[in-house]
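The following block was generated as part of the benchmark described in Methods. Ligand: fe (ii) ion.
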Amino acid sequence: MAILKPISKFSSTTPIFSNSRCVKFATFRMSSTSPPTTAKTVAKGGKKAAKTAIKETLLTPRFYTTDFDEMETLFNTDINKNLNQSEFEALLQEFKTDYNQTHFVRNKEFKEAADKIDGPLRQIFVEFLERSCTAEFSGFLLYKELGRRLKKTNPVVAEIFSLMSRDEARHAGFLNKGLSDFNLALDLGFLTKARKYTFFKPKFIFYATYLSEKIGYWRYITIYRHLKENPEYQCYPIFKYFENWCQDENRHGDFFSALLKAQPRSLMIGRLSCGPDSSVSRCMLPCTSTTVNALLSTRALD
Ligand SMILES: [Fe+2]
Ligand SMILES: [Fe+2]
């Protein structure tokens, strides 16, 4: 999933990028509230470098929270008879296989490529890495908490969430390593504590996250295929990793698909609210409008 942060966030003063070779290392601290806020860039070694205004927009990635008590009820097999535990068991085995365990290994091409990216492209590319890292990290936080909260109620579903948080942490870490090629890093610990969390009811978490994961899959594979056909635009090696990477997102989407099937009440509410004459697309409108907002701010990369 990705995020769009306004370029102005960092471009207002530009020192970080245009003089990046002069700054040994900087840590971004992205703040949370909607009006423009302040981000602190800190040079490695603790020396404060500069302060840069952050302007958050609709497209800035968000962090999410939900009604965890309701989640526990929804995944209680004594209460929800629609839960297909054998399907979840099969999915769990797939996640345990951890197909991409050894996939995210960097090489010297990364730094060499980063050093060749200059000017406006450098600025845009750093934003791309930063937004993507924040979005992946957002998924990590939500899935990790769901894994923790559902452990007693439904250990199988809980373990899947934990393994998905493993994947998202890996993705976020790989993107953050990419930022290090530009002498930058996102302060993820600070983000966790300081960023505002947006609340969604569980059913909207299901809709939004399902679509977000599937859009994430299509985004990664589309970029990968495009650059494979047009290698002259392959400016940084991270894109070569997208072919396997997108399969993680696809598996996450498949899991949410199984979750949605296990929550027919949520799906039915969507249909009933639109009436019997509504087309499928109209039926989905109330859900997707919320979902689109979520997608824009989490995964809808570019
Ligand atoms: Fe991911
Ligand atoms: Fe994912």
